[in-house]
Amino acid sequence: MADTHHADKLMESDDMFGFIVMDGEGTLFGTLSGNTRQVLYMYRLFPPKKHGRGGEPALRFSRAHFLKHINHGRKTDELASMLYIDPNTRQPNVCGLILAGSVEYKTRQLVDIIDPLLKEKIVNVVDVSYGEENGLNQAIELSSGILSKPKFAKE
């Protein structure tokens, strides 16, 4: 049985944390406040399939695949700004942001282009084995120690 002491302390907090779980298949945006976990938005990415044929089309397919992933990072940044920044006050509506995913996607595509207001709110960057809701659950578990610290600082 896993030690759930940190997770139990996390559930007592009322602070809202944002999660971005990004992998090669898509991105999930979620929040955690106390014991309430919510998926705000999720989208799937359908990159062009790799073709085993060489020659002239290989370069075209490679370029299309690369552009699809660049657009994935841009779309993720735009959605993060829409979901985690209040449009009226232009301030983040979460007290912290956790980026989760495979090393390649969360670092290369998101950390470099994320809105500066949200970049200041990043409290943890974790490697997860899964995407979507399983990745969100894993990110919450891996971040439970960090997420409980603001509560202790207030006390």
From TrEMBL:
Residues 17-147 form the eRF1 domain. InterPro entries: eFR1_2_sf (IPR042226), eRF1_2 (IPR005141), Peptide_chain-rel_eRF1/aRF1 (IPR004403). GO terms for molecular function: translation release factor activity. This is Eukaryotic peptide chain release factor subunit 1-3. It comes from Medicago truncatula (Barrel medic). The lineage of its organism: Eukaryota, Viridiplantae, Streptophyta, Embryophyta, Tracheophyta.
